[in-house]
Amino acid sequence: MDYHTSEEIYTELIQRDLVDRRIVVFNSASFGEFAGPVSSFWEAAEQVVRWREDNEVGMDEEVNVHIPPDIFLMLWDLPDGVYGVSYDIFTRLTKDNIPHGWNADCAATYREISRLLVGRGFGHCQYSNWTKDTTALNAYLSMVSLMDIEPPGKFQSTLKSVKVHYLADPAGLDGTDSIRLGGVYSLHLQGPTLAHLVPGNVPAVAPQVLQGLPRYTKASAMVLEVNNWRIRP
Hints:
By secondary structure, this protein is an alpha+beta fold. The chain has helices at about 5-15, 30-35, 40-55, 70-75, 90-95, 105-120, 135-145, 155-160, 175-180, and strands at about 80-90, 125, 130-135, 160-165, 195, 230. It is elongated. Mean pLDDT is about 80; it is low at about 30-40.
């Protein structure tokens, strides 16, 4: 019998209207490389079927993404919890004119990513980080599904990095409130700071004179006005 990829086999089954959650196709070579708690094809297949039933995923819905069994079994063994999907896109490959880039705005890609991840139940944590209380497998599938955003192939060709990460303690590892000015790590000004950005619990006074501008700040009439700044007393 000729060798066929799992995608070819699944596609053939679907074309013949043989769609059933209990049909599982494994690559024996990939399975043999996996050293984990699952010791047989039958046990691995049972876990795949159980996952499909628990998540109401049909065999035909997996055709576009075939997770190698070693990856599947590794994900299956990870705990449920809050998982994040984060990404980074090459700006120049997106914005530069053809032939060097897509001649498009990065915002369009971000909107497409947002639409897909929101549809999968993720919340926007920060710039390029989305989180959801879910299983490792669902988080991984959500990451891979980013290949489906419009236009086809753009995400793959401009991708710098994309990862799934597990947050063991989402609240405890969030440093936003602690690091933000006025938080436990930022109780004092470290240098000249814009007056309207200084919260009331941070001691601050207007400087008599500006001892030079903060690095990267461009000079202007408003910038040179000392009352627009605050320093540590």
